Give the backbone structure.
Amino acid sequence: MSMKYIHLAVSLLFFLFGVVQYNDPDFFIWIPIYLFVSFVSFASFKGLRFPFITLVVLIMLGIWLATYFPAFITWVKDGMPSVTGAMKAESPYIEHVREFGGLLISFITALIYYFIHKKTQDVNPE
């Protein structure tokens, strides 16, 4: 499979991540995050690059990710109980750990695309 189609698959996956957030109480936060990553990966599919915009969003995601880190550490210290059970979180940090996971996946994916876009920009300066 060509790398181009991997970009398309990643874009579709993050688009679907965004779609399933419609019934989340804070959908207005999560849908744009997932759609941004979908957009960046779709841009790669189309041969477009936006390293500066991606970097700005990466910084925001990184800061936000850091705010969830204490809940993640608490979860680890508690023996990493399942966070996939009931949709309603039994412990206060369960929802934070779930959100940490979503942010981490988005952050890592956006980081990969930042380096792809930056490398392409450095190779082909306009």
About this structure: The mean pLDDT is 87.
